[in-house]
């Protein structure tokens, strides 16, 4: 494919300019340019495919996740063929230290079916915690510290890179620490509480990227804060 920094007869100058800006800009600006590239059709899809291919072997990034998302949602056959061939399981390694399969979670998040992904995330946490948690369908705070670091990283990365950096346990932890671990400040900031009223599940939660930062995944606060406190204090986030 032609160098994105030069204008070619096969690439209109405005598209070449977008490619140049995307290649040379910082992440925040890249996210703003991305929809414009997608709107150019096949030239933009081919450019983004090549860009994502060049990221192979490096740590996933917010921009990489957004590019993957754009290709995943594209109706152009070239995008689907590229992802099926080069990234059949996504850009996040689906690693587990206990043999748990995160393929369905990856697919739901790639589809941005955040409500179903949230439900499955809770199921995976219960699966990690053991048979008793699976049966009761929620985890005790005493079980949280036993959750494998590798698996928590996988779950968090899937949420983070399929939400342009808005969702995930690590995002919630960052906000929580930034508020000196004050839950009363955190709840309204992430949209879990308004005044004295808890946000009602599921209809009052926001299941798309218009949600507040840190809105997802959810944690049931009816049993208190000990479970989420243990989760956000897990050693996984210190590594």
Walk me through what this model shows.
The protein has helices spanning 13-24, 27-39, 42-54, 62-73, 77-86, 103-110, 114-129, 131-136, 141-144, 149-161, 169-178, 183-189, 226-232, and strands at 193-194, 197-198. By secondary structure, it is mainly α. The protein folds into two domains: 13-86, Serine Threonine Protein Phosphatase 5, Tetratricopeptide repeat (Alpha Horseshoe), CATH 1.25.40.620; 103-238, Arc Repressor Mutant, subunit A (Orthogonal Bundle). The protein has a two-stranded antiparallel ribbon with strand order 1-2. Strand 1 (193-194) and strand 2 form a beta hairpin. The longest helix is centred in the middle third of the chain and has 16 residues, at 114-129. GO terms for molecular function: tetrapyrrole binding.
Strand order in the sheet with the most strands:
1-2
Mean pLDDT across residues: 93
What percent of residues are in strands?
under 5%
- Oligomer kind: single chain
Secondary-structure arrangement, i.e. CATH architecture of the largest domain:
Orthogonal Bundle
What is the CATH homology-level superfamily of the largest domain? Gun4-like
* Distance between the first and last residues' Cα: 39 Å
Uncertain residue ranges: 1-9
Provide the domain count.
2
Topology as a string of helices (H) and strands (E): HHHHHHHHHHHHEEH
Question: What would you report as the Rg, rounded to the nearest angstrom?
Answer: 20 Å
Structural class call reads mainly alpha
Kindly identify the CATH topology of the largest domain: Arc Repressor Mutant, subunit A
Report the principal-axis shape. globular
Figure out the total of helices: 13
Describe the sheet with the most strands: 2 strands, antiparallel
What is the name of the CATH class of the largest domain? Mainly Alpha
Q: Roughly what percent helix?
A: 40-55%
Strand tally: 2
């Amino acid at each position: 494919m032609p160098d994105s920094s030069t204008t070619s007869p096969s690439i209109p100058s405005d598209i070449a300019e977008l490619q140049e800006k995307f290649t040379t800009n910082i992440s925040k600006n890249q996210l703003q340019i991305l929809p414009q590239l997608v709107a150019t059709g096949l030239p933009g899809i081919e450019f983004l495919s090549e860009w994502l291919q060049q990221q192979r072997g490096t740590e996933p990034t917010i921009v990489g996740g957004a590019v993957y998302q754009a290709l995943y949602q594209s109706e152009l056959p070239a995008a689907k063929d590229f992802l099926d061939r080069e990234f059949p399981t996504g850009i996040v390694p689906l690693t587990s230290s206990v043999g748990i399969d995160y393929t369905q979670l990856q697919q739901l998040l790639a589809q941005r079916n955040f409500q179903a992904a949230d439900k499955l995330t809770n199921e995976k946490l219960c699966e990690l915690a053991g048979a008793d948690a699976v049966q009761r369908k929620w985890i005790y705070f005493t079980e949280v510290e036993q959750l494998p670091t590798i698996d928590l990283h996988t779950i968090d990365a899937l949420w983070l890179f399929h939400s342009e950096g808005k969702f995930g346990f690590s995002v919630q932890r960052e906000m929580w620490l930034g508020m000196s671990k004050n839950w009363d400040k955190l709840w309204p900031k992430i949209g879990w509480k308004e005044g004295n009223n808890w946000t009602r599940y599921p209809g009052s939660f926001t299941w798309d990227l218009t949600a507040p930062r840190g809105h997802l995944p959810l944690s049931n606060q009816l049993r208190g804060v000990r479970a989420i406190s243990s989760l956000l204090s897990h050693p996984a986030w210190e590594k």
